[in-house]
Amino acid sequence: MTDLPQTMKAMVLMGHGDLDQYHWHEDWPAPTPGPDDVLIKVGACGLNNTDVNTRSGWYSKAVDEATTGGAYGEINEDDPTWGGAPLTFPRIQGADAVGRVVAVGANGDQSIVGKRVMIDGWVRDWSDPHNMDKTGYYGSEKDGGYAEYTMADYRDVAVVESDLSDAELATFQCSYTTAEGMLVRANVGEGDTVLIPGASGGVGGALIQLAKRRGARVIAMASEAKHADVQKSGPDVLLPRSPEDLRAALGDEKITVVADIVGGSIWPQLIDILERGGRYTCSGAIAGPMVELDLRTFYLRDLTLTGSTIIPTHVFRDVVGYIERGEVKPMLAETFPLSEYRQAQTAFIEKRHTGNIVVLP
């Protein structure tokens, strides 16, 4: 490997807090690949909630409010990240990177040099890849894609053959693997009716497409101003974001699965409308993490509640296959130059769009 870049442009997070913790650099040291690494020239990188929540410290148990995107008055020093451990700064975030391979270490496949790849958001210990306690997140425990160049283990990348643009491909990794992981945990299939709160976001739209792909009936909940855009993902029924009486709004629909990334005040109703033997799966709490559960509802109706964060190792490559076969479609809302990342994250926080926001180095 010769003539590798020595410096690069990068958006660097210097600590927990507000958006001013992001610093733009035009001469940041470029990563140097080791024997198991792939060096990638980034073409595009999508935003996701982990970027916002990690920067703000929302994951800390000292925070009990909804995701705001602003700095919090107090976060615990020992649990400010998704994994409940301190983060090392400075850090380059960005888990949804797409780009071309520039160089491959000695242990990797040299034939992928020059090819376009997607990066798995989960950083595995490949001596023990199924061990969740040894799994990190790209752009959190390891530098990510908000830079001209990024680096990943060769086992964490997949060549993707697609006519989609880099920006379109950058909408898939976090949203679609998170959604697919939730549906895997809930064992969704034909005969299920899946209720999806927060369906206007990236994960919500992915849940619609992927649940339909599995043969399920889908009922989506979103603000009425976004219904036309949400309808493009193909739900069978669209409801308002927060019906006053969810049971009445559902009519005769029998909900076997709730796939939730919202939480908040509507949460008890989501549990109450599940059929006997129903499954609730969760991968977020953007409307608030503190909820009330009547344990009688839980056990008397034989419900199953599953959390979903670290996905099985096959899910990323499954999603790449869905993309290549045209079984899912991208939801690209807007692109920003990487140098304007603060503006991009503001637009993401304010939920100005249906779908995903992507930055371009």
Explain how this protein is built.
- Helices cover 22% and strands 25% of the residues.
- The longest helix has 13 residues, at 173-185.
- It has 361 residues and is of the alpha/beta class.
- The protein folds into 2 domains: 7-171 and 330-360, Quinone Oxidoreductase, Chain A, domain 1; 176-307, NAD(P)-binding Rossmann-like Domain (Rossmann fold).
- It starts with 6 loop residues before the first strand and ends with a strand.
- Helix 8 links the parallel strand 14 and strand 15 (304-307).
- The chain has helices spanning 49-56, 166-169, 173-185, 202-213, 227-231, 246-250, 267-272, 295-300, 314-324, 341-349; strands at 7-13, 22-29, 37-46, 96-104, 116-119, 122-123, 136-137, 149-153, 157-159, 193-196, 217-221, 237-239, 255-260, 274-282, 304-307, 332-337, 356-360.
- The model has no long low-confidence stretch (mean pLDDT 96).
- Strands 3, 4, 5, 8, 9, 16 and 17 form a 7-stranded mixed β-sheet that branches. It has a 6-stranded parallel β-sheet with strand order 12-11-10-13-14-15. A two-stranded antiparallel ribbon has the order 1-2.
- It is built from 10 helices and 17 strands.
Based on the model shown, name its key terms.
single chain, 361 residues, alpha/beta, Quinone Oxidoreductase, Chain A, domain 1, Rossmann fold, 2 domains, 6-stranded parallel β-sheet, 22% helix
Structural class from helices and strands? Answer: alpha/beta
Shape: globular
- What CATH first level of the largest domain would be assigned? Alpha Beta
The total count of helices amounts to 10
How much of the sequence is in beta strands? 25-35%
Q: Tell me, rounded to a whole number, the average pLDDT.
A: 96
Cα(first) to Cα(last) distance is 23 Å
Order of helices and strands: EEEHEEEEEEHHEHEHEHEHEHEHEHE
Sheet with the most strands, sense and barrel status: 7 strands, mixed
What is the level-2 CATH architecture name of the largest domain? Alpha-Beta Complex
User: What is the count of distinct domains?
Assistant: 2
Q: If you consult CATH, what is the topology of the largest domain?
A: Quinone Oxidoreductase, Chain A, domain 1
